[in-house]
TrEMBL record:
A molecular-function term among this protein's GO annotations: aminoglycoside N-acetyltransferase activity
Lineage: Bacteria, Bacillati, Bacillota, Bacilli, Bacillales
Keywords: Transferase
GO annotation terms (biological process): aminoglycoside antibiotic catabolic process
Protein's UniProt keywords contain Transferase: yes
InterPro entries: Acetyltransf_17, Acetyltransferase_Eis, Acyl_CoA_acyltransferase, Eis_dom, GNAT_dom, SCP2_sterol-bd_dom_sf
Annotated protein name in UniProt: Putative GNAT family N-acetyl transferase
Residues in coiled coil: none
Residue span, N-acetyltransferase domain: 1-146
The UniProt record lists the keyword Transferase: yes
Organism: Listeria grandensis FSL F6-0971
Entry-linked Pfam families: Acetyltransf_17, Acetyltransf_9, SCP2_2
């Protein structure tokens, strides 16, 4: 059995395994799948010329506390059923982490078919996605707004340029963990029909402060994504949705924020809500990640003991003071001992240090926990994309 990169000429074998394992067509069509398969790092386990198992890694980037981080997006992890439980995926995942480290991809994301399965490789949940189903008669009255909504489509270059700029501002300043979308990713969204209809809210001065990607599917108003830089824009977009109340029987919405956001935004949030623990993250290379991470209070010295069974280069004791990071052998200072899963969740903003200690995901004294609470910014993680 040979572990190696899958050649361009062998992408047909990747498709065959994809189709057999997932039983669903690629949602963006074959042209979209071909582009990403051609640009991915493709690792496979072969017996002769036969592909037994595969892992693809997309070259992507994300925003963490306003900084761009190179990210390896894991996709199409699969093996033929007769080779499952033979350790093939473990070998491929471990080699994928080595390759990501060599490529400078400091973090990795994936969408799990099984959360416990990917926890074994150091990944952990970092998003809480919410889907809403609102009957037309229950659409909220958000009051009046001074601005107006303008319509665009994916064929309108002006609309795409406006939403791109708004998305980047939102991703860099409002959330942690969001995709930094390039031309190829916007084209991917267009192939899936997400940008066919665009609504942009402009304030009374004509400045765009929010947008929505949506579509009408018979009597269903589908919100693919809503981004607002302020509450006025959010209200304005919901007023626009409400104007369709006589045309549709319900609104189905995703990528609009967390349950907490919904509780704060809606006068009466009494409609169906479904929470999904969706994407998982892991830090691929701890030391350079810590050097780039924007800690608060750069004058504070911290000590971190990292445990990582899958990527042993991450294990060890680190001294951190702002962007200054070094490995040390021992210290008399207070140490936060944490797994790579807990560290990834904490630094993304999904969970606070005190919560990790409470649930036994980390250990530290009360004084050490208090120090870490002060240096981890209070910015919540989210991710509106998928692969």
């Amino acid at each position: 059995m040979e572990l190696r990169e899958i050649k361009d000429s062998e992408i047909g074998k990747v498709k065959e395994l994809r189709d057999y394992a997932f039983r669903l067509p690629a949602s963006g069509g074959e042209a979209d799948f071909n582009y990403w398969a051609e640009n991915a790092r493709r690792l496979g386990l072969f017996y002769g010329e036969h592909l037994l198992a595969q892992v693809l890694t997309y070259p992507l980037s994300v925003s963490i506390l306003g900084e761009r981080f190179s990210m390896g997006g894991i996709a199409y992890v699969a093996s033929y059923p007769e080779y499952r439980n033979g350790g093939l995926i473990r070998r491929l995942m471990e080699e994928s982490l080595v390759k990501m480290r060599e490529a400078g991809q400091l973090v990795s994301y994936l969408s799990p078919f099984s959360i416990p399965f990917y926890r074994k490789f150091g990944y952990e949940i970092f998003t809480e996605k919410v889907e809403l189903t609102i009957p037309a008669h229950a659409l909220p009255d958000m009051g009046t707004v001074p601005g107006r909504v303008m319509r665009f489509t994916s064929e309108d270059g002006t609309g795409i340029s406006v939403v791109r700029e708004l998305y980047n501002r939102f991703a860099l300043t409002k959330k942690s963990g969001m995709m930094m979308r390039d031309d190829a990713w916007w084209l991917r969204l267009a192939r899936r029909g997400y940008t066919k209809e665009i609504a942009v809210y402009c304030d009374m001065n004509g400045i765009a402060t929010g947008y929505m990607l949506f579509g009408l599917d018979h009597e269903v108003f589908k919100i693919h994504e809503m981004i607002a830089l302020d509450y006025e824009a959010e209200k304005g977009l919901w007023r626009f949705i409400g104007s369709h109340g006589m045309m549709v029987d319900r609104v189905v919405a995703k990528n609009i924020g967390s349950l907490r956001d919904i509780a704060l935004a809606f006068p009466s949030p009494d409609f169906e809500k479904r929470e999904i623990l969706d994407f998982m993250v892991r830090i691929v290379d701890v030391e350079p990640f810590l050097e780039k991470y924007r800690f608060d209070r750069s004058d504070t010295t911290l000590y971190l003991q990292v445990e990582d069974e899958t990527a042993p280069w991450n294990e060890g004791l680190f001294e951190i003071r702002g962007s200054f990071v070094k490995r040390i052998d021992k210290t008399e200072g207070g140490i936060l001992t944490i797994s790579i899963q807990g560290l990834s969740q904490m630094l993304m903003g999904f969970v606070r240090p005190r919560d990790l200690v409470y649930y036994g995901k980390a250990t530290a004294s009360d004084i050490t926990i208090a120090a870490w609470e002060k240096v981890i910014p209070h910015v919540r993680s989210d991710f509106y994309d998928g692969f």
